[in-house]
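Need tokens for this chain, all 310 residues.
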Amino acid sequence: MSCELFRFLIKRKDLFMYYFIVNKISGNGKGRKVWKKVEKLLKEKQINYQVRFTEHPKHAVKIARELSSEKCCAVVAVGGDGTIHDVANGLIDSNIPLGVIPAGSGNDFARAFDIPTDYKKALERILTGKQRKIDIGKIGKEYFITVTGIGFDGKVAEVNNASKYKNWFNFIRLGDLSYGLSFLHVLLKYRPVNIQLKVDGKNLVFFNVWLIAIANISNYGGGIRICPDACYNDGFFDICIVHNMTKWELLRTFPKAYKGKHVFYPGVTMIKGKQVEVISELPVIVQGDGEILTKTPVNVTIQRDALLII
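Here are the structure tokens for all 310 residues:
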């Protein structure tokens, strides 16, 4: 290596910098434990890095926005789907790739993009992997990467996020089961509503709707394959509407969704679209990537190639 090139690389070491945004409390403390192991590995590999820790809800969005103007190899989220959601919202259209080291309970983002749950393999992918652009969804000023759920599953997400048993399941490494328990909890009192949908300009009406899932990837809720054919780079949402079912029928159909077999049942309608407007007779909760975003009515649009991931 020439002296000139060496001096240039020293001056521009920011080009080889990795920024990590760590949610220490994700996965009931798993984020902190995983980061300690990752940091040790970074030092062993002599990788240039800086780390920022989240201190409150939506802090990761602010940190990622600040870093989006930096020159670096990647901004890496260490946490669960909520942390990834926030970091992605801060990196939109920045051309800085998002890396992920899973440390949450559901890890649906990692599952969809074949990111290893083992921190060593996840870090190796970040250091050597290829970059690619993916589609994302938008509701108002908020973006989501995986699935937005409207109605019943929005309420399930709200209950699950606030539950104490979610932390207990995370502690025994069975975090995926907390969603199922929240499902049963909400099922006791939830009442379906009538919904008006406008999908790419076409008006549709559904009665007694339990949920509408607008999916950029196939899975949510810790591995539920709600829209089995959803693809993050085809320019379309896959939309699942669950309607006209009794509680017993919903309970019987729910386990099938883990393998995507629910789509063959009466009362499950699957459609595709780029723009979805949802109006309900009563306001219902809307979640995206497991985070509570708003209530209906909402307008959901797809943004082509809006996020770079590694």
